[in-house]
Backbone:
């Protein structure tokens, strides 16, 4: 199965759409954290689903563990959004969000990251959904801490063909929180998205 | 409106599609009397301003090389009376107050609402 | 006309509609029951006065509500990461790890203009119990695997030790500890084999009985250490003068037995004996003393001089006696003169 690529004009459109949605997300995050937030995209690319694990390894290979969140969205526009964070970035964000005097534990970190990824996912997917004139409903997200060494042991993802890989950077309060966002779509969804973007 | 010189608009955004969407929102009766010049970063914004002295500048904030805020600053120095409208995905109040303080006439949040855009445009043109 | 309240009051999900100030607009039966409240008396009341919420939960609830209103998309609390928001008794009757019901909560927009949202509360206690159990079992399994692996390692190490011991025992039983040459036992085995092969393939082989001349004198003059060192050096020479298919053994103090496999004739055997004598004659340095050592050799040939172990040895021995009598530093082949 050949992997999808966007032509430069489509990529420009996609990037702009995501940029706009990130503006909305950043505004909300900044509001919730009572600080100025900037959410931007250093990089965006597309890969086939078979290359997903290899991509994770490429982006996070130097870590021993990482956090992985998953959230499905269903409807006429459907797919799944996965985020990957290094433990360091996850803890940084948790500290910024919860600002607690007490020591923050694993559950706090997981909860904070889920909150963050839910905001970005909702903003981004809603924006794409609007352009595509579709409807979508967001499912409950989940989060796991995974071992890089055991990457092969985790269950394979099925039901999707392509992944849009978006490197996201959240700048807030002198912290730079880097997250890797993956939008998983099947061929039909992606074709539809491409078709709509071409017509814009 | 015949005999009147054409207006010049400068639209600057690093996203081609973003510029396209904005330009498409200009009402036809204004568009037919306007020359539209496009730029894709802050550096071009300044250079094109110097060259063409547009009547209205539409400036995106997040751009490479020189960003919109920096470009706004320079353009205002060239001509304190310059009419600059900021267009941005960043809708935070702190950002808005910064650009208004620097002399921007208005701030439009992306995705730009057609009606809001036309209202702003009409108020500036007249 | 669908009566929604009929539905919402009979389902197994908590439904709570509140605004951004946490003022209650609606509460369904399930929620009221589990919160031990009267659903009719809660409308218009602040949530915090009805249910005890932890301060940090109030903050995060308000944050989630804001997110839902701004993005017009759901926000969530998950049992896995957040545990519970509303302290409610769970339905597990046996001993549970959890004090309160574990909850998945979805927050969805209700009336955005009025900043109102609906909370949907799902009891996930059973699921979380199962998850904990699985985790516990998985941990125990990992531990068991670790123990098993340790045991395997220990067994393998023990096996390696036994194999090494086996090798040592074999070596002690078949080789001379000083020189490393074959001992009587091994020589006997090899000789038997040569006899069998000799019969099967009609080939000749030679038996050389060697004796160091005046060894006792050297031992007495220079000491036993020197004597041992000499024996070791002689052994090395004998090995050098023979092939891999030959067997060099030590059968007593300064007595050696060499089996030469596949010999063409008597002349060949005599050539080999001469070679040994010439090589040993070369000066040997033992403990800073330059020694000239000589050797006497008695030889027998199969099948001419015997067809069994005893005969061949006996005749080689007789030949050796002759060699000594003839003045030592030489070899004699067995002659049946009787």
Residues:
């Amino acid at each position: 199965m050949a992997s999808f690529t966007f032509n430069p004009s489509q990529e420009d459109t996609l990037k702009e759409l995501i940029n706009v949605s990130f503006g909305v997300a950043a505004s909300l995050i900044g509001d919730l954290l009572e600080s100025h937030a900037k959410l931007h995209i250093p990089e965006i690319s597309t890969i086939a689903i078979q290359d997903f694990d290899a991509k994770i390894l490429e982006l996070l290979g130097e870590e021993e563990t990482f956090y992985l969140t998953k959230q499905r969205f269903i409807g006429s526009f459907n797919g799944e959004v996965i985020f990957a964070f290094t433990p360091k970035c996850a803890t940084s964000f948790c500290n910024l969000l919860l600002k607690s005097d007490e020591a923050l534990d694993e559950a706090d970190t997981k909860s904070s990251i889920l909150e963050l990824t839910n905001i970005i996912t909702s903003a981004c997917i809603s924006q794409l959904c609007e352009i595509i004139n579709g409807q979508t409903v967001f499912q409950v997200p989940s989060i796991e801490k995974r071992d890089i060494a055991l990457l092969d042991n985790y269950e394979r993802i099925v039901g999707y063909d392509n992944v849009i890989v978006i490197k996201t950077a959240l700048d807030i309060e002198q912290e730079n929180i880097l997250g890797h966002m993956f939008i998983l779509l099947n061929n039909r969804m992606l074709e539809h998205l491409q078709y709509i973007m071409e017509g814009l | 409106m015949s005999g009147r010189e054409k207006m010049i608009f400068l639209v600057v955004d690093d996203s081609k599609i973003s510029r396209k969407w904005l330009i498409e929102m200009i009402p036809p009766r204004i568009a037919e009397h306007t020359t539209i010049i496009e730029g894709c970063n802050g550096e071009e914004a300044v250079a094109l301003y110097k060259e063409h002295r547009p009547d209205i500048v539409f400036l995106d904030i997040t751009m490479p090389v020189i960003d919109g805020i920096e470009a706004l600053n320079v353009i205002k120095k060239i001509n304190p009376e310059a009419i600059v409208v900021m267009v941005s995905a960043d809708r935070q109040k702190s950002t808005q107050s910064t650009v208004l303080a620097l002399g921007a006439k208005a701030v439009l949040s992306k995705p730009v609402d057609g009606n809001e855009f036309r209202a702003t445009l009409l108020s500036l043109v007249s | 006309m669908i009566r929604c309240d009929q539905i919402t009051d009979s389902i197994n999900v908590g439904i709570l509609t509140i605004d951004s100030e946490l003022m209650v607009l609606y509460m369904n039966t399930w929620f009221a029951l589990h919160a031990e409240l009267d659903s009719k008396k809660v409308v218009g009341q602040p949530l915090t006065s009805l249910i005890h919420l932890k301060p940090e939960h109030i903050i995060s609830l308000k944050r989630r509500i804001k997110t839902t209103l701004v993005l017009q998309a759901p926000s969530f609390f998950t049992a896995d990461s957040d545990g519970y928001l509303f302290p409610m008794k769970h339905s597990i009757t046996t001993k549970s790890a959890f004090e309160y019901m574990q909850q998945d909560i979805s927050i969805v927009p209700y009336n955005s203009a009025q900043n109102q949202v609906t909370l949907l509360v799902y009891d996930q206690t059973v699921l979380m119990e199962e998850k904990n159990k699985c985790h516990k079992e998985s941990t125990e399994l990992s531990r068991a695997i670790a123990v098993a692996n340790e045991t395997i390692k220990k067994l393998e190490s023990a096996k390696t030790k036994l194999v090494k011991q086996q090798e040592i025992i074999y070596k002690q039983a078949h080789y001379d500890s000083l020189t490393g040459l074959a001992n009587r036992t091994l020589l006997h085995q090899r000789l038997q084999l040569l006899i069998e092969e000799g019969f099967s393939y009609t080939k000749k082989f030679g038996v050389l009985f060697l004796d160091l001349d005046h060894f006792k004198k050297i031992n007495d003059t220079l000491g036993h250490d020197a004597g041992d060192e000499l024996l070791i050096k002689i052994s090395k020479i004998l090995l050098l003068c023979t092939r891999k298919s030959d067997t060099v053994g030590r059968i007593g103090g300064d007595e050696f037995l060499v089996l030469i496999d596949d010999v063409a004739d008597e002349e060949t055997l005599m050539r080999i004996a001469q070679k040994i004598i010439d090589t040993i004659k070369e000066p040997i340095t033992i403990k800073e003393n330059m020694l000239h050592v000589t050797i006497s050799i008695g030889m027998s040939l199969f099948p001419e001089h015997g067809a069994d172990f005893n005969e061949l040895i006996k005749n080689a021995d007789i030949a050796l006696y002759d060699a000594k009598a003839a003045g030592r530093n030489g070899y004699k082949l067995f002659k049946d003169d009787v």
Remarks:
- The domain at 7-125 of chain B is CATH 3.40.50.2300 (Rossmann fold).
- The longest strand of chain B covers residues 7-12.
